[in-house]
Amino acid sequence: MSGYFFSKDSLAKDDRVLLFVGNRILVRNGEFLWRRDQIAEEFIAQDTMIKVSNGREDVLVTRAPAGVEVFLDAELSSLRSLLFEGDERAMLVAGKANQLLDWHASHQFCGFCGEKTAPDRSGQALFCDRCQHAFFPRINPCVIMLVVDGSRILLARNARYRTGFYSCLAGFIEVGESAEDTVRREVKEEVDLDVGAIRYYKSQSWPFPSQLMLGFFADYASGEIRPEPGEIEEAHWYDIHDLPAVPSAKVSVAGELIEHYVKAMKSSL
Ligand SMILES: [Zn+2]
User: Fold this and answer.
1) CA torsion sign, 100 to 106 to 112 to 118?
2) Tell me: the pLDDT tens digits for 151-195?
3) Ligand 1: centre distance to CA 124 (Å)
4) Residue 99 Cα, ligand 1 centroid: separation in angstroms?
5) pLDDT per residue over 207-266, tens digit each?
6) What is the DSSP code (8-state) at residue 164?
7) What fold characterizes domain 5-106?
8) Which CATH class is domain 140-268?
């Protein structure tokens, strides 16, 4: 098998293996990559494994049965905890692995005719022989934007994901929208402001569960802040010299947007 798929039967004893229990990762002494010969055969729950590269070698990923951590003297870590420990290598591999495992699990059957799917020849899609339809992994594009107005920036706290941080506004791109349309719509919906010029900054893969975050700066144009009930807990203008707790620029594009803007403004003052 090639592409994203790997047969359990082809495993060699020193292959690198990553095991998920539910959506958490099996970790022992801070190490999340296991050697094949550290793991009993029955702990590898699926015959078809997912293959991802960590830049140096292939890592083979599968689900393990619940409770396996007790037998392996290991712990279960969430993807988010790996991210917030700043382990970029782990995030790259585990984030991609998590998205591909989810895709594989949710496309076992054709959405058109209900027939069982199988990896196609390239190994990059799951294929329905009856419909001749290929199902590729999907990512969901989102925008994340820092609304700025000279030396003040708009930061908000989400009502549903309470992190303790004040951060940028964000939202999913809807069918038929450009990314810029979404920036305008989401800012209007979430805080009732209108924005003028919009500048793209950079993007980030965000595997919770499978977003591509497109980061923008948006210039404030008009309006008074009115947080959307149920969505935005609170939103305020903050002076760049007096910011609340914001996400780290090492972890998220939100943090990078804030850091980049604040640095640029401070150096221009
Ligand atoms: Zn079909």
Assistant:
1) positive
2) 999 999 988 776 778 999 999 999 999 999 999 999 999 999 999
3) 17
4) 22
5) 888 899 999 999 999 999 999 999 999 999 999 999 999 998 988 899 999 999 999 999
6) S
7) Nucleoside Triphosphate Pyrophosphohydrolase (3.90.79)
8) alpha beta
